[in-house]
Design goal:
Distance between the termini: 42 Å
Number of domains: 1
Radius of gyration: 14 Å
Order of helices and strands: HHEEHEEEEH
Shape: globular
Largest sheet: 6 strands, mixed
CATH topology: Nuclear Transport Factor 2, Chain: A
Strand content: over 45%
Helix content: 25-40%
CATH architecture: Roll
């Protein structure tokens, strides 16, 4: 895969599934050996770290969806080169346990293989997330 429109279509399908709370649809956009890594200090926020493979992705994304609803996503910028894409988004997020709503930005770094996401590295304001869930 290397076509810009094809990669952006997969990303938008992944984002739509995440926004709809569809964990299976989200994981379906990933390669069977795909990985997700939320960058941050795991000792400060247990949600950070990396998972790889379909079942671990289902479990991890299932937990994220259970606790955090993405109520709105605005794509601010996107860059595609080769089999890589970078997308910066502004999100409106609801933390289900408390009902708190907050706005934040994330930066997603994607790598593709065989038309699927083989790697997603996400940079988020983990300090803000920690404050919200505390």
């Amino acid at each position: 895969m290397g076509h810009r429109e094809d990669m952006l279509d997969v990303i938008k399908r992944a984002y739509a599934a995440r926004g709809a709370g569809d964990v299976k649809g989200l994981v379906a956009t990933f390669h069977p050996e795909g990985s997700f890594n939320l960058i941050g200090d795991n000792s400060a926020l247990h949600l950070t770290g990396s998972v790889q493979g379909q079942q671990p992705l289902l479990e991890a994304f299932g937990q994220f969806i259970k606790h955090f609803a993405f109520e709105k996503r605005e794509i601010l910028s996107e860059v595609v080169e080769g089999n890589h894409a970078v997308v910066r988004c502004r999100l409106v997020v609801r933390y289900h346990p408390s009902g708190k709503v907050f706005s934040t930005e994330v930066l997603d770094l994607f790598r593709f293989q065989d038309g699927k996401i083989i790697e997603l590295i996400e940079y988020a304001d983990t300090a803000l997330v920690k404050a919200i869930i505390s």
